């Protein structure tokens, strides 16, 4: 297997990838952005990409949701949860008092704003492509246009020569980011088998000019006893008011309740895209009524077939 991730080395995405069995010995190619990582999957120059999709403080990573949802040629095959801690790295020779401009990934910035308001209330923010990219720029000895970078504690561990100004600067000690491993849809690799604790991700365009359209989508899941663990609306970019929904539902494509829900979704929104069924990182099994079990669906099909 050949992997890519939001790089360079030392990002949270790389930490997520390294938790995948076998990835530490595999070829790992950093990408400069999430779309660039997914492009490598699409053109088959790698087998899989590890990208951030959701965090417990900021919500969905919209760049990832949009990039995976464009086209139905990608599949999520695994999710990984990474606890997030942040440190502040200064430019060489700078102290906390010298910091006027801080650079990091936008999701990291959102998670240290409280600490910044307390410690560095006047500071300006400069976005970077990733946390590690902002920090390792100081290694090049050139002035990168900012005085400090927010990144993972892994970066100063890998580069002890960096100027560590502060540790544990995250506003929420329980912050967790969810990453997904994405492959090409029909790449010949085995699909993740059902484990009993799975998730299915779909992208569903909201049918337009129809009252109760969202209810029409949701009732496809509700009527089959399929619980949702995330639902987010995103603009399609085509016109004001044109939206799709990115949805995670509990269960696997092989569960009859899920197959029936997906059939229903396709009837009300034929543009629905299936982005994969994969094991839940937390192993939590769904609460199921007996009338939503595979046996109950099979018995009902059998009954109708014999009428
Ligand atoms: O920039 C990184 O290190 C990433 O992997 C993206 C990210 C940034 C902040 C929190 C979680 C993931």
UniProtKB/TrEMBL annotation:
Residue span, Prephenate dehydratase domain: 2-184
Keywords, comma-separated and alphabetical: Amino-acid biosynthesis, Aromatic amino acid biosynthesis, Lyase, Phenylalanine biosynthesis
GO terms under biological process: L-phenylalanine biosynthetic process
Any Pfam family: PDT
SUPFAM superfamilies per UniProt: ACT-like (SSF55021), Periplasmic binding protein-like II (SSF53850)
EC number: 4.2.1.51
UniProt-recorded name of the protein: Prephenate dehydratase
Species the sequence originates in: Rothia koreensis
């Amino acid at each position: 297997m050949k992997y890519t991730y939001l790089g360079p080395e030392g990002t949270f995405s790389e930490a997520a990838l390294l938790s995948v069995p076998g990835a530490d010995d595999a070829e790992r190619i950093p990408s400069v952005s999430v779309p660039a990582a997914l492009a490598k999957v699409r053109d088959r120059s790698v087998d899989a990409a590890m990208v951030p999709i959701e965090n417990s403080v900021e919500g969905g990573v919209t760049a990832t949701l949009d990039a995976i949802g464009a086209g139905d040629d990608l599949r999520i095959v695994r999710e990984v949860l990474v606890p997030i801690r942040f440190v502040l790295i200064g430019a060489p020779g700078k102290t906390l008092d010298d910091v006027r401009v801080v650079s990091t990934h936008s999701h990291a910035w959102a998670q240290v704003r409280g600490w910044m308001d307390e410690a560095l209330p006047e500071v300006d923010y400069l976005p970077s492509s990733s946390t590690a990219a902002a920090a390792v720029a100081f290694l090049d000895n050139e002035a990168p246009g900012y005085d400090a970078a927010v990144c993972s504690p892994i970066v100063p561990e890998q580069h002890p020569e960096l100027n560590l100004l502060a540790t544990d600067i995250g506003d929420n000690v329980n912050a967790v980011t969810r990453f997904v491993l994405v492959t090409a849809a029909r790449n010949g690799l085995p699909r993740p088998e059902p484990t009993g604790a799975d998730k299915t991700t779909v992208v569903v365009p909201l049918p337009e000019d129809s009252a109760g359209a969202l209810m029409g989508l949701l009732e496809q899941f509700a009527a089959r006893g399929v619980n949702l663990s995330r639902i987010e609306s995103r603009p399609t970019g085509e016109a004001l008011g044109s939206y799709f929904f990115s949805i995670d539902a509990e269960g696997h494509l092989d569960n009859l309740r899920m197959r029936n829900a997906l059939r229903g979704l396709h009837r009300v929104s034929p543009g629905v895209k299936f982005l994969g069924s994969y094991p839940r990182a937390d192993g939590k099994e769904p609460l199921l009524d007996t009338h939503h079990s595979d046996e109950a669906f099979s018995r009902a099909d059998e009954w109708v077939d014999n009428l």
